[in-house]
Structure formats: C-alpha cells, structure tokens
Design goal:
Blueprint: H1 3-21, E1 26-30, E2 33-36, H2 40-58
Antiparallel strand pairs: 1-2
Helix pairs in contact: 1-2
Length: 71
C-alpha cells in the first residue's frame, strides 16, 4: 500500500478511536466493518502498526543497524 493509503487508514482508525473514547458503543469504519467498544485494544494495535508502516515508508524503508566495536 502506498503512503497516501496508509495515512487514510490511520485517519479512519484515529476517528474510530476518538469516537469510542468519547462514549460511542460502536463505530462503522466502512460499509462492512463495525467496531465495538470492546475492540479498542485492537484499534490501538492497528494504529501502532500503521504508524510504524508510515514511518518506514517515509524513511525510505531502510533498516537501522548499530555496530559495536571494541577499541
């Protein structure tokens, strides 16, 4: 998925989290996806995953490696 798609998904997840935290018992993410208050932990997990994916795409997808050497 491209960066724009990831950011769109993140915005939807954030909106669902906000609505549920504000007292909604359920929230519809899309026409076929209903999120209930009990799914809040799953939403937090998905948000963390999306944020990590976005960071990886924005940073060029590289991995950071540390080298420890004895002097």
């Amino acid at each position: 998925m491209d960066l724009q798609g990831l950011k769109k998904q993140l915005a939807s997840i954030n909106e669902a989290i906000s609505n549920i935290e504000s007292g909604a018992q359920e929230y519809r993410l899309s026409s076929d996806t209903m999120v209930r208050r009990g799914d809040l932990a799953t939403l937090y997990k998905e948000r963390r995953r999306l944020m990590a994916d976005i960071a990886m795409v924005e940073n060029g997808g590289g991995a950071f490696v540390a080298a420890y050497m004895r002097g």
